[in-house]
Amino acid sequence: MNKIQSAKAWGYAASNLLGMILIGLNKLLLVGSGLLVFSEFVIIPILMGIINAYFLRNLYTLKTRKLIGISCINGMIAIVLSYIFLKEGTICLIIVSPLLFCFIFLGILMGRGMFHRDNDTLNVSIISLLLLIFVADSVSMHHYENMVSDKIVINAPVTEVWKHVVAYKRIKAPEKFWLFKIGMPSPVESTADGYYLGAKRKCIFSNGYVFDEKIVTYDKDKNLTFDITHQPRDPEIMGHIDILRGQFLLKDNGNNTTTLVGNSWYKLYVFPAWYYDIWAQSITRNVHMRVMEHIKQLSEEK
C-alpha cells in the first residue's frame, strides 16, 4: 500500500469511527425521543470530512475531483455501516445519501484549508465550535408539522365521487412514483366500518401496512376528515414521520364535474426540516395522486 492509499484508508477508518461514536453519544442525549436531528446529518459529516482531510493534509496535489471521489467513498462506507449497525432501511439511506455526501465533501474542503494554514489554535477552535453545536442541537427541542394539499378534477357529479371517497376498491394500476417502484409502501385500498361520523376506517398499504383511522368529520358529498389513530413502524420512512390527519374535500363545479381536494397533516422526526420536508411533501403528494386518480377512474366508469 503506497502513501496515498494508506492516508485514504486511515482517513476512512478514523472518520467513520468518529461518526459512529458521535451517533452513539447522540442516541444517549436523545434517549427515548425517536428523533434524528440536524447534527447527525450535517455536523457529524462535516467533522468526518475534517478528520478525512487531516490524513490527507500532506497530499495537497489532490485535485477537487479526487476529493469528491474520496467524499463519495467515505459516504458509502458510512451508509453501509448505518445499514449494518443502525438498522436503517434502504430507502431511508437513499434519501439521506445526498446530504451525507455533500457535507462530508464540505468537511474535507474545510479541513484542507484548516490544515494547510497549520494553525492549531484555529483548528481546535473550529472543531470545538462544531462539537458545541452538536451538543446544543442534540439537547434542544425539535418540532415540525406541515400540511400538503393536492386537487384533481373528476368528470362525474359529487354524489358519484363521494361513493369512492370513504372507501375504495383495490388499486391495480402500476406504480408511477420511483420510490414506490423500489419498495416504499404505497396505498392500495381503503375500507370503512360504515358511512357515518365516528366510523373506523383503514388505509391499507403495500406490504400489508395498515393505517387505522377514525372519521371525525362526515359532511356527505362535501367533507370527509379522519384522524390517524395507529400507524405502522418500520426501518423506512414510517419510523421518521407521523401522519396525523387526512381529508377529502369535494366541490360541485356546476357542470357535472367535481373538484376533489386531498389534504394531509404530518409531523417529522428527522431534521433538518428544510431538507427532509422536500421528501415528505413529494411522498405525500404521490400518495394523494395515486389515491385520487384511482377515485377519478372509479367515478368516471360508465
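Next protein, fold it too.
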Amino acid sequence: MSTRSDLLASAEILLRTRGYAAFSYADLAEEIGIKKASIHHHFPTKESLAIAIVESYLFRFKSQLECINVQNTDIIDRLKAFAMMFAKSSESALLPLCGALAAELLALPESLKQLTKDFFETHLNWLQINIVKGQEAGELKAELDSVKVARLILNTLEGGSFVSWALNDNYEQLSGFDFILDGLRVAGTRH
C-alpha cells in the first residue's frame, strides 16, 4: 500500500474510534511511523484528510449497497445485509463513520457537515427505494410510509451502534432491527 492509502486507513480508524476533534496529525504520525510533515505533504489540512476519508468511505459504501442489490433479489435479505454492515462495524469496535461525524457536527468544518448530510441521505435513499420495492413485491406492508420506515431503520442501526459502543458489551445489536423487520413484513413472508 502507498503512504497515502496507509494514512487514509489509519485516519479512518482514528476518526471512527476517537472522533474528528480528538485525533491529531501527531496521533496519525505515531500510528503510521512517519513524520507529521509527511502527512501534511499528502493532506495539507485535517479537513482535507477528513474529506478524503469520507469520500473514500462513501465510494466503498455505495459499492457495498450495489453488491447487496445484485446479490439479493429478496428485499428482506437486502435489509438484513444492510443491517449486517452496522453489526460488523460494531464487532470491530468501530462507530459508523457517518454517526461518528454527526456526533461532532458542531465542531466540523462546513465541507464535512455537508458530506455528513450527503452520507446520511445516501443511506436513507437506498432504504426508501428498497422499502418501496419490498412493498411492490408484497414482502413489506403496503400501508407503511417508506420515508418514516427508512428513518426508523437507520435510527435503530445507528443508535444501536452507539449504545453498544458506550456499554462495550456483547448485546445482540441486530435484535432491535429484527424486531422492526418483523413489524414490516407482510404476514407469511418470514425468512
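About the second fold: DSSP finds nine helices and no strands in the chain.
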